[in-house]
Amino acid sequence: MGAETSSDTRRSESRLSRNRASLAHKVRYAIGHPEKVPAHLRRAARDAWLRARHRDHIAYYRAVMASDAARSPEAAVGGRPSTERWLAIGQLQFDYLVGHGLRPEDRMLEIGCGNLRAGRLFIDHLEPGHYYGIDISPDILIEAKRTVVRYGLQHKLPYLTIADNLTFDFLPEGYFTVVHAHSVFSHSPLHVIDQCLENVGRILAPGGFFDFTFDRTEGREHHVLREDFYYRTETLTGLAARHGLEARFMDDWERLPHGQSKIRVTHPARDRAEERDPA
After folding, report:
1. In whole angstroms, what is the distance from residue 208 CA to residue 152 CA?
2. pLDDT, tens digit, for every residue of 51-72?
3. Which of 217, 211, 196 is nearest to 259 (CA)?
4. Of the candidates 180, 255, 226, 228, the residue with the CA atom closest to the CA atom of residue 79
5. Quick check: pTM over 0.85?
6. How far is CA 58 from each of CA 69, 156, 183, 189, rounded to the nearest angstrom?
7. Distance (Å, rounded) from C-alpha 234 to C-alpha 254?
8. CA torsion angle 36 41 44 48 (round to 10)
């Protein structure tokens, strides 16, 4: 048991210190996984073409999602064309939030709702009209509406709308008790994350929380093409603090079978205490 734990720890440390953007890593990966080289070359060619056409990252990634959704709506959210995997990751997100107290009366905003991989479960769990999903991709939102129909969730009246930034300027102040973003910051440059953290506090209700996942590195921060970004935990917690928010690393999420890490953002403890006890 001890040897296995030590081996797992070494593998984890190696994964977290890896620089996937380096030429050395790419060569080693290509030698070890030659069957994946053609797919990577196709992604690299698409990346070059879309970057030339779209200087703005939101427009760029909207085009990426359009390309992915045209091939497979399920693969466009999660990157693996497997219904079983799509269902499993959605269930994982749902079970985690319910385990952390997600209640039917909560008002939830899901950033990057995609085709409702987890959203279909949140919609079913929450009271009618309490789920609000936004995404930058009109193509994937069409698939989200099809998911609502496929699972018979029309009576839950979910809101699904497109967004072209993360200012949330069209949403009410202090309204959402839960904000959720899964596999969004893993595809976002730092200025997009900064915009989100700058504005999410305004729409977050006192006592509420914002959970987001990210691809974690303990080495040099880097990105692969413009699709996959790797950040150090302290970079993102520090960014939240700069905007007057508290952020903590969610250790219990690390034990679940998912490759990303999770941070929870809340209003400062003093404000939460005042909300619970106005006196």
Report:
1. 29
2. 788 888 888 878 777 777 776 6
3. 217
4. 228
5. no
6. 16, 29, 15, 10
7. 16
8. -170
